[in-house]
Amino acid sequence: MTEKRFDVISLGRLAVDLYAAEIGVPLAEVNTFSVYAGGCPTNIAVGTRRLGLKVAMVSRVGIDGLSDKLVNFLAAEGITTEFIARDPVHLPGLAFLSILPPDTFPLVYFRPDPADMYLSIEDVRQVPIEDSRVLVTAGTRFSGDIARAGALYAMERARAAGTTVILDLDLRRALWKDLRAYGLNMRSALSLVDIAIGTEDEILAASGQETIEAAVELMLKQVKIAVAVKRGQAGSEIYTPDGAIHRAAPFKVEVLNVLGAGDAWASGFTYGYLQGWDWQRCARFGNATGAIIVTRHACANDMPTLPEVEAFIVEQEQQGH
User: Fold this and answer.
1) Which residues, other chains included, contact 16 with Cβ-Cβ below 8 Å and sequence gap of 6+?
2) Which residues contact 65 (CB under 8 A, 6 or more apart)?
3) How far is CA 190 from the centre of its chain?
4) What's the rounded Cα separation, in Å, for the pair 276 and 217?
5) What is the pLDDT of residues 37-91, one digit of tens each?
6) Domain ranges in the chain?
7) In CATH, what number does 6-318 get?
8) Residue 276, Cβ neighbours under 10 Å: how many?
C-alpha cells in the first residue's frame, strides 16, 4: 500500500481560546486571560500531532495578529498549515472561559461572523484529502451554509477515496437557535461518516432519540464503522454495527479544567485507530489522553505527547486504575 502524505487532515474551527489565568474566579471578576489556540478540529490536530502523526489543518482565519498567532503555533507544532486560508474581511472566533474546579466552567462564545465559517468548497478544493488516511471534521461546520457545503464536499471526496471520515458531533448550543436543526444537520451527514464521536448528550441531540440505545441504533444504520460515546469520568464505549459494545474503564485524576477533554479523547482514539488497535484499546488510550488534559490549563497548547501518555497509563495501572 502506498504511504499517504498525511495521517490526519483536520478540517474546521480554528479560533482563539481565552482561559482565565485566575483559577476559581467567576468570569465577571477575571482580569487576566491566557491566550491559546482552540476549536475542536484544532485541538484534535494538535493532539494527534503530539502523538506522532502527520497532520494538516484546514481552516480559514483573518489577516490580523491573532490569526498570525494561531497559524504560527500550529506550524511550530509541525502541523502543515498551507491549507489555512486567509480572509481579509473576517476575524477568528473567540471563546472566554472561567475555571472554577471541579465542576463549573462557564464558557462564552464570541463568534458574530468568524472567518472559519467561510471555509468554502473552493478552499477545500485545494486540499489533498485523498492523500490522508483520516479526515476529521466537527458538528460546528453545519451551523452555516458555506461551511456546511465545504465540509460535505470534503467528506464526499474522502469517502470516494477510501479515507476514513471521523465526525466529532461537537455540539455548541450557542451556535444553534434550535437543537432540532442541529439534529437534522447531523443526520443528513451520517451517510458520509465512518466513525461518529460524541458525548451522550450530543448523540441524543444528533439522533433525535430519547435513549442512548435508540440513538446509537439509529446512527449505526448510517455510520459505516462505529459510534463512540465519551462519558468522561465514566470512561467510554465503542458501538459497532455487529451489535458489539466495547467498553473502556476510566482513569482517576484531579480535575482542573474539563474543557477539551473530549477533543483529547478523540486524539488518543484516532491515534489508536490508525495503529490498528482493537476498539477497547483505542478507547482506553483515548481515556488516558482525556484524563491528562483535564489536569492542565489549556487544551490544544497542553495536549500530551506519546511518551507522556504511555507513562501515565503505566503509572495509573500500577495504582490499580
Assistant:
1) 35, 36, 37, 38, 66, 69, 70, 92, 93, 94, 95
2) none
3) 17
4) 25
5) 999 999 999 999 999 999 999 999 999 999 999 999 999 999 999 999 999 999 9
6) 6-318
7) 3.40.1190.20
8) 8
